[in-house]
């Protein structure tokens, strides 16, 4: 593991009411510090679908990528957010194949969508957390889409016969 990297989890995906953009809110694992990353509506949907474990009839692009990794016996070890430059986050997908570690350049939103599917840790470079991390009392977009769906209601007797 890259030394000093900060582990985060997906806290929520938020909607900005005045823009089509969405915000992925990442929460530091061992602290009350958050990182907000603006993503497009399609990327937000790709992340939400994975978090809520919605079954799709056909694989979406990120499912396809996960399947390609699997087909080549590559394991997704972690994803990283390695740099913030000119308001753009730079991502990295770290995989392991044939005993070696492979780093694949990625948009941060794609890396997060892959991590959600592969149940891989999301790591952030400390310099990114220092410059862009926020405490909970600071401004965050209003509307919240929870990262996890509620568990389904228990099946009734006649539903379990289907």
Describe the structure.
- This protein has five helices and eight strands.
- Mean pLDDT is 87; it is low at 158-162.
- It is an alpha+beta fold and 162 residues long.
- It is globular, with a radius of gyration of 17 Å.
- The chain has helices spanning 41-51, 61-71, 108-118, 126-132, 157-160; strands spanning 6-15, 22-28, 34-39, 75-85, 88-97, 100-107, 122-124, 143-146.
- The termini are far apart.
Note poorly predicted spans: 158-162
Total strands: 8
Oligomer: single chain
Radius of gyration: 17 Å
Backbone shape: globular
Percentage of residues assigned to helices: 25-40%
Strand content: 35-45%
Give the helices and strands as they follow along the chain.
EEEHHEEEHEHEH
Largest sheet: 8 strands, mixed
* Ends distance: 46 Å
* Tally of individual helices: 5
